[in-house]
Amino acid sequence: MKFQQLLSRVGVPALGIALVAMAYRSYGWAGVAVVASGLVMWALLHFNRMVQVLKRAANRPIGHVDSAVMLNAKLRPGVTLLHVVAMTRALGELQSPKDTQPEVYRWTDGSLSHVTCEFGGGKLQKWNLVRPGASSDAA
């Protein structure tokens, strides 16, 4: 497991527990209430963002993107699947067998250009842009 994954799985909850403990030690139960309220607000903000992204994606066809070339230009290694869905405003078309790692999704635009993205552990590892006109020019 990578350090960043370990940090997000163990470090964030440990930080929350440490904040609650420090608040109790410094301010008693009133401090715990303030810190717990802040942590719940943080969780609700992230949940709200996820719901909004999925609500926008629900109104679009699966695997469709306005421009595959622009999506290719915006992609960076390590971004999450939720971030890519937010950029495309559509769910990707699953290309790999269900519930296997790595997950492979494809987004296609109107000119049949498509971007195939490979996600490992929910993070973008690599992607490939295919343009139908470019392959015939090379031949």
Describe the protein:
By secondary structure, the protein is an alpha+beta fold. It has five helices and four strands. It folds into two domains: 55 residues, no CATH class; 78 residues, Beta-lactamase Inhibitory Protein, Chain:B, domain 1 (2-Layer Sandwich), CATH 3.30.1450. Strands 1-2-3-4 form a four-stranded antiparallel sheet. A hairpin with a 5-residue loop joins β2 and β3. The termini are far apart. The mean pLDDT is 89.
Keywords for this structure?
139 residues, alpha+beta, Beta-lactamase Inhibitory Protein, Chain:B, domain 1, 2 domains, 5 helices, elongated
Number of domains: 2
Main structural class: alpha+beta
Give the CATH level 1 class of the largest domain: Alpha Beta
- How are the strands ordered across the major sheet? 1-2-3-4
The CATH architecture of the largest domain is: 2-Layer Sandwich
Q: Unreliable stretches, pLDDT < 50, 5 or more residues?
A: none
The overall average pLDDT, rounded, is 89
Number of strands: 4
Count of alpha and pi helical runs: 5
CATH topology of the largest domain: Beta-lactamase Inhibitory Protein, Chain:B, domain 1
Helix-strand topology string: HHHHEEEEH
Biggest sheet layout: 4 strands, antiparallel
- State the distance separating the first and last CA atoms: 43 Å
TL;DR of this structure?
The protein is 55% helix and 17% strand. The chain is an alpha+beta fold.
Topology:
Elements (H helix, E strand, L loop, with lengths): L2 H25 L1 H30 L9 H7 L6 H8 L4 E2 L8 E6 L5 E7 L2 E8 L1 H7 L1
Antiparallel strand pairs: 1-2, 2-3, 3-4
Helix pairs in contact: 1-2, 2-4
